[in-house]
Write a structure and sequence with these properties.
- The complex is a heterodimer of chains A (106) and B (120).
- Chain A has 106 residues and is an all-beta fold.
- Chain A is built from no helices and 11 strands.
- Chain B is globular.
- Chain B has strands at 3-7, 11-12, 18-25, 33-39, 46-52, 57-59, 67-72, 77-82, 91-101, 104-110, 114-118.
- In chain B, a hairpin with a 2-residue loop joins strand 9 (91-101) and strand 10.
- The A-B interface holds A 31-32, 34, 36, 41-46, 49-50, 53, 55, 87, 89, 91-92, 94-100 and B 4, 35, 44-47, 58, 60, 94, 96, 101, 103-113.
Chain lengths: 106, 120
């Protein structure tokens, strides 16, 4: 099984700040990595697929990078509507998710 | 825009069988894979299984012995049954569409989730 580890588990920062979330895989997964945003009581929302491809309709302030075992989700300028939990997910060998990163506004 | 909606009992007794159905609307059930994912309280997301429109399935090995998944394309529904449940199966259960863009799969539409509690 491929284990996915996210850091930090939570963060609190100001509107307009740059936010970086990291995800590490227990083995190389090439770019078989997706990112989701999950707001309480709502369906999770796909943000990024294949490590760096922006899903249609997702604001351009979201970006993804990385390959192999280390990946990053960046929000270039945090907005109030970005308060959510963010998950990475690998599709290299069936599927597994990271533990999530809770993003809050300070 | 495809819409997914989970339905089923919110309370199941220990040792009994959990049954959920996902209804697909606003899009075709054909030519896609369909997945179940769950999230126990305070924990992360866990992939359970997926099924194709033609009935091909793949299951999480940790749940495989207790798990059945089926699809009814005429009703645009797919279903999950999990037998011999325990408190550890208490979770929000999500259904999702599993899409493919070369070279990988991702979940591009999700239901809102349904909480299933295992308790006597």
């Amino acid at each position: 099984d491929i284990q996915m580890t996210q850091s930090p588990s939570s963060l609190s920062t100001s509107v307009g700040d740059r936010v970086t979330i990291t995800c590490r895989a227990s083995q190389s997964i090439s770019t078989y990595l997706n990112w989701y945003q999950h707001k309480p009581g709502k369906a999770p929302n796909l943000l990024i697929y294949a490590a760096s491809s922006l899903e249609s309709g997702v604001p351009s302030r979201f970006s993804g990078s990385g390959s192999g075992t280390d990946f990053t989700l960046t929000i270039s300028s945090l907005q109030p509507e970005d308060v959510a939990i963010y998950y990475c997910q690998q599709s290299f060998s069936t599927f597994s998710f990271g533990g999530g990163t809770k993003v809050e506004i300070k | 825009q495809v819409h997914l909606q989970e339905s089923g009992p919110g309370l199941v007794k220990p040792s009994e069988t959990l049954s959920l159905t996902c209804s697909v609307s606003g899009g075709s059930i054909n030519s896609y894979y369909w997945a179940w994912i769950r999230q126990p309280p305070g924990k992360g997301l866990e992939w359970i299984a997926y099924i194709s429109d033609t009935g091909y399935t793949r299951k999480n090995p940790s749940l495989k012995s207790r798990l059945a998944i089926s699809v009814d394309t005429s009703k645009k529904q797919f279903s999950l049954t999990l037998s011999s449940v325990t408190a550890a199966d208490t979770a929000v259960y999500y259904c999702a569409r599993q899409n493919y863009r070369d070279p990988l799969f991702f979940f591009d539409s999700w239901g809102q989730g349904t909480l299933v509690t295992v308790s006597s």
